[in-house]
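Sequence only, no structure available. Ideas?
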Amino acid sequence: MGNIYLIRHGQASFGADDYDVLSPVGVRQSQALGEHLARLDLRLHRCVAGDLRRQQDTARLVLEALHGNGCAVPAIETDPAFNEFDADGVIRALLPGLLAEEPQALHILRNGAQNRSEFQRLFALVVQRWHAGEHADDGLETWQAFTARVQAGLQRVLDSAGSGDNIAVFTSGGTIAALLHLTTGITPSQAFALNWQIINTSLSQLKFRGRDVALASFNNQAHVQLLKVPELITFR
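Reply:
I predicted one. Tokens follow.
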């Protein structure tokens, strides 16, 4: 059987002008993961990443750490099917319908770095309404379209995979939630309940034989836990 390692990107720059940049913590998380994989002597046959900067940079840093520890590494392949859903677009589309019951929602969502717990509560509510289809057909990528995109990316990986390959896929939390939904049959609500627990640079492992895929492990975070540096365990 082969293995697909779903790796969430390192911590991005939440609250900054450009979210899609790894923070210093995100850089260290990525390096720690590469060093950990080297200690495990894990040979990666392929590496696929979405085209978002935070995904690409996480992949690059992990592979650099692997190579620096004497491991052969593959080139980074890019497939935008593994990009995150448009969180900003989801917020813009669903926010007007939220304001009647959550009058502070606009302020909280605009200032999430200063209101982290309230931001998460409101964002989870918005995402729930998005995957339930409670929004206008205004060009926003729907949950159904998002999962179809992710599934197409997974099938491309499987179609070109060799038997016994170890394949790293550098992606995002929402994409991992979609893959959990697709591979295990859990509901979107259940998948996103798990999504909120996924830490930056954690590994979730899928095993595959041909096109048959099964979840083997979820949200492994040993690479940062073993360092005993709590600041490296982040969720956003």
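The chain has a mean pLDDT of 93.
Hope that gets you unstuck.
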